[in-house]
Amino acid sequence: MDYRAAWRGRARHTVFTNRHDEARLGAMIDAWRADPERPPHLHVIALIDAALPGFRRVPQAEPGLTLDLLGAAPGAPFGVTLAQLAARIDLFRLDGGDAVIDAMIDDDTARAMARLAARDACLVLEGADAMSAPALGAAAAAALAAHGFVFEEGGKRARFAGRKPRPPLPPDPQRQAIVLGAGIAGSAACERLCARGWQVTLVERHAGPALEASGNRAGIFMPLLSRDDNIPTRLTRAAYLFTLRHWERLGGIGHAIEGQACGVLQLARDAGHAAVQRALAAGGVGGRPYPPDFAEWLERPQAEALLGSSAPDGGWLFRRGGWARPGSVCDALLAACGERLERRFGVGSVTVEHDDGQWHVLDAHGIPIAHAPNLILANGAGAAGMAETAPLPLSAMRGQVSHIPAQMLPRLPLVLCREAYLTPAAHGICSAGATYDLDPDPVLSLASHRENLARLRGLLADPHAAEGAPLQGRVGFRCIAPDRLPLVGRVPDAAAAGGTERLRDVPRHPGLYALLGYASRGLIWAGLGAELLAAQIEGEPLPLETALVDALDPARFVLRARRSPRGPQAADI
């Protein structure tokens, strides 16, 4: 088809297709590249019949090109998947034979398509092969017509002409921002904004990046599994897959990023836990088995052959997982920002003020450091001391990692974990940990060290492993919310919220955004969290299902406080 007429005059052309066809997708991208009057952005959203359900944003090397893959849950109606999509669609391309498309379109689906349709959006029917085009059945055609799609003669194309007013698109943002905090969350925010042409000032109290919670020698990256495929599992799956692809674009593990994609073996705790995991492996997700390169259950002989030591109850192998030094990830992200990033490091404690549409960051003496219309808080537990975010229920959780001389441990071929983790040696040191406690003391603790050693010995099934290991390691403080999910989005104005009951109605501080609460999963969550926030600010299609977006909204705590029988309490909000 001739796409040029559909995308002319648009800054972003967003296409939805029910079939991820590489040849047709390639033809569309080639047409976009070849058109001198093309829109700056081409965004393709494709429904796929995948083993892993959920939305997946696939980072592309080419600026202006975005690809989202929507893995529908087995048996889920087309309309159910569309209902979780937050986008404005310019072109619906429905592909397949008559029976395929007719079966997809019912009243719920047509309603969902109308909700997503941009003004004058096109709908094109394409055949299962390039030489044919289906004709809609009467019921499907009537459902689409009832929701505003007007068909041309021949019934192969339609244009959306719904009478219901379209919600206004957000105004183009002023593409200038301050990011507060140069850990993994802040570094990812800088990279995702600079990639969209923003000018960003990064403000950090320390002399360099990744000197607080992101300063450990090694963090592990792996997906999360659960029997009910719950929200943390779905979020972590989407973020993990995004991160793997995104890191490749930054230069890759073992190159631009220090670490190893050596795999992770997560051991079962005992025979009962192994039985539960075995059932999970048999059922997979949504009734489909996990792809082996994503997650594979290993029984005892396989696990022990791989590990080279005891694994009496088996475990999960995550082949594409491994470990990375978070500071090197921050370095790679910031390097990718180029000249659009201004770094203000070593500024010490700061305060922020909002005046006349601008956020101002001031040092401890009240001297201005930076100003911009947008401020992104990625300062972890430091956000608890700021007036705008103090009402949010964030806490600082201490984590101590022990550094074990490699010669005191058997050589590991991969990361080993259960209640704790142990990494292969890097520069002669293995990392073991990490503790979780509310102790505010930043000094290495002998008790925490002994706790790490005890868990390490349990992992290795060796009561004498690392015996006599010196007290060496690092203490960091994770920023954690009560539900253990991150806070991504606009910061709520809790004092002005009144009795509102819906997220979209919660008042927000103008131009103020949060990337907080990453707990111990910042290495995985940071990239997709920053991508989600940047897409929200820019008014782009979102890379996650709306249910997950809502679950991450910082304003969720305002609503929970409203619903509490005690009424709103500062500790709840």
UniProtKB/TrEMBL annotation:
Enzyme class: transferase
GO terms under cellular component: cytoplasm
GO biological process: methylation; tRNA wobble uridine modification
Keywords: Cytoplasm, FAD, Flavoprotein, Methyltransferase, Multifunctional enzyme, Oxidoreductase, S-adenosyl-L-methionine, Transferase, tRNA processing
GO MF annotations in UniProt: oxidoreductase activity, acting on the CH-NH group of donors; tRNA (5-methylaminomethyl-2-thiouridylate)(34)-methyltransferase activity
Pfam families, sorted: DAO
EC number annotated for this UniProt entry: 2.1.1.61
Domain of life assignment: Bacteria
Domain FAD dependent oxidoreductase: 177-535
NCBIfam families from the UniProt entry: MnmC_Cterm
Protein name: FAD-dependent 5-carboxymethylaminomethyl-2-thiouridine(34) oxidoreductase MnmC
Gene behind this protein: mnmC
